[in-house]
Amino acid sequence: MRTSENVAIAVALKNIGFDIESKGDGVLVVGILDDSPVQNKLEKGDLLNSINAIEISSASEFISTLRTYNIGETVSIGLLREVKGNLKKLYIETTLIEHVEYEGEPMVGFLATTVNERFDFPFEVDIKTGNVGGPSAGLMMALNVYNNLIPEDITNSLVIAGTGTIEIDGSVGPVGGVKQKIIAAKRAGAELILVPTANFEEAKPMETESTVIVAIDTFDEALQVISEYSSR
Q1: Run means of pLDDT, 10 residues per run, the chain, 232 residues
Q2: Which residues make beta-bridge pairs with 166?
Q3: How wide is the angle at C-alpha 147 spanned by C-alphas 142 and 148, nearest 5°?
Q4: What is the chain's Cα-based Rg?
């Protein structure tokens, strides 16, 4: 959740015009999914640092780079592995599979975290999320930070809800439990609900005359949709 908050803040500040830099020390493998094609290739504790010779330093970079490839493509992943007390540079090749939860999304098949991810923000931004966990609020956190740091109110008092992960490049990723989230948003009086394109087919049947559901792929698209609907 903390990583998602930092990425959301970074995306918002970048869209306002701040030059935000982030650093990490690689992508740490913390688990391998059952039946994953990397079951016998990656190990817990491996530190990944490249995809097809493209350097990566964080899980966000890994995900956004992975999305430039298609399900079924083969990629080469560079990594460091501790062998008998020494770090050894290795490369493994694997075919990308469809995400176990999100239709149309490529995945490798492991759980990961960024080692020592750091953002250089020009000032402190505090997001109070209470007991909410997970990355699904990324898009909405970014939109709220953005809206609080610009002079005008982008919503124009329109009640807006949404869901979607956010990556450092502004891309919006799919989430689980979209039907339940839409039900909660409608109960809260949402007039416009933003959902990732990958979740739109599932969400669209829940649209009503009083609640419009719109698919978006990026933070910029979300801003454009909000601008169009709030100015009506």
Answers
A1: 85 93 88 94 96 92 91 97 93 94 88 86 86 83 96 95 92 94 96 96 95 97 96 85
A2: 172
A3: 100
A4: 19
Q: What pTM value is reported for the model? A: 0.69
Residue found by looking up tokens 């919006």 in the block: 172
Closest CA to 32 of 105, 84, 108: 108
Tokens for 147, please give them: 């809206």
Catalytic (active-site) positions:
136, 181
Distance of alpha carbon 190 from alpha carbon 174, whole angstroms: 20
The residue type of 66 is L
What are 99's two structure tokens?
Answer: 């995400």
Nearest to 157 by CA among 190, 195, 194, 196: 190
Amino acid at 114: T
Three-state SS for 37? coil
